[in-house]
Design goal:
The complex is a heterotrimer of chains A (104), B (95) and C (157).
Chain A: H1 3-28, H2 32-58, H3 62-91
Chain B: H1 3-23, H2 27-52, H3 57-81, H4 91-94
Chain C: H1 2-18, H2 23-43, H3 56-61, H4 63-82, E1 91-96, H5 102-114, E2 118-123, E3 127-132, H6 135-142, H7 145-154
The chains are: A mainly alpha (104), B mainly alpha (95), C mainly alpha (157).
Chain lengths: 104, 95, 157
């Protein structure tokens, strides 16, 4: 195992770990709005680290370029989808759970 | 073999997300879980390409990602408006 | 100029997706790119909003900082999720946005959402409604550093 493969394995392993953590958060969080934050851990750090590891393994090839486009797609599209979901939920009247000292 | 643990972690993530989609309790939780399932499925496809060494899975992942966005927006619009809308309809009327 | 750069971007995208370098396929890609730009011109979507090429400098100056912020706050959210008592203090806060253009506001709103722990719920003109997972996350956003950085990188050509 070369040093590059080792680094890629570490990156991908961490990425997989963050994905599992995000999914655990999806199950543990008390309401919809807080679950969105757990989901965004999957979509940023989880996805980013796994794809970074794969790009490291792929080297300078077209495959890596495709993976980079995949990462850009996730990073541009997932916040838009999350925002659309949050706005739709608020418009629909879903009340967020707020902390006691959060009243303005 | 460095891919097998990653594939296992991603499949575990999918299982947990599906549990959230199953539990609900409302449509937005399910849509959020479905969106996250789409993202993880893209990652899984990309890893499987390297795992099996068969080319073409990254293209599948790209197409899947594009469809995932469309699917989320369509589901949202359906549940906010009640149908997929008429062409040229103003969004504010329904909201 | 904008049309030319749009066509070149589309052609590069074609090459990455196809991966073949035969003359016929390269020519087909070039024709497709030009045709798409021609159709987009008829739809009037090749404008500063549809193809914001003047934001290219942002990729170098703003994204590294954003990546650092994402890693930092993702780590914080991870610790919260794994904490046995789940120490969250969710709140809705209003955040000022000082961007002049619509694309700048979109970049700022997407940056907020992309950072774990904060989600833009309502994006208005000059003020966003943001749902934050913790008191600290809301406070660091209210500090306005991200807003200032986006505004600074907005008009660099």
């Amino acid at each position: 195992m070369t040093i590059v493969e080792l680094a890629a394995a570490v990156l991908m392993g961490l990425g997989g770990l963050f994905c599992v953590v995000g999914a655990v958060g999806m199950l543990r969080m008390p309401d919809f709005y807080t679950r969105m934050h757990a989901a965004s851990v999957i979509e940023t750090l989880g996805a980013g680290l796994v794809i970074a590891g794969l790009i490291l393994l792929g080297g300078l090839t077209l495959e890596s370029a495709k993976l980079a486009i995949l990462a850009l797609l996730i990073f541009f599209a997932s916040p838009t989808a999350t925002h659309a979901l949050a706005r739709a939920a608020l418009v629909r009247g879903l009340e967020p759970v707020l902390d006691e000292d959060a009243r303005e | 073999m460095i891919y097998a643990p990653v594939v296992a972690a991603l499949i575990a993530t999918l299982a947990l997300l599906l549990a959230r989609a199953f539990l609900g309790p409302n449509v937005f939780d399910r849509a959020l879980a479905a969106n996250a399932v789409g993202t993880v499925a893209m990652l899984l496809l990309a890893v499987i390409e390297f795992y099996t060494g068969r080319p073409g899975f990254t293209d599948l992942a790209l197409v899947y990602g594009l469809l995932n966005i469309l699917g989320t927006v369509a589901v949202l619009k359906f549940f906010r408006v009640g149908d997929l809308g008429e062409p040229g309809e103003k969004e504010e009327e329904a909201a | 100029m904008r049309k030319l750069s749009a066509a070149v971007t589309l052609f590069l995208f074609w090459i990455v997706l196809s991966g073949y370098f035969t003359p016929f396929l390269l020519a087909a890609g070039a024709v497709s790119a030009v045709a798409v730009v021609a159709f987009a011109r008829r739809l009037e979507v090749v404008d500063p909003e549809g193809h914001p090429v003047h934001f290219a400098g942002m990729a170098l100056r703003y994204w590294p900082w954003l990546a650092k912020e994402i890693v930092k706050s993702a780590w914080e959210v991870t610790l919260i999720i794994l904490h046995p008592r789940l120490p969250i203090s969710p709140r809705l806060v209003r955040v000022r946005s000082t961007q002049a253009t619509a694309v700048g506001r979109v970049v700022f709103a997407n940056s907020i959402t992309l950072t774990p722990g904060t989600v833009t719920v309502e994006a208005g003109r000059g003020e966003f409604l943001v749902h934050a997972l913790t008191r600290e996350g809301a406070a660091s956003l209210a500090g306005g550093e991200m807003d200032a950085r986006v505004t600074r990188n907005e008009n660099v050509s």
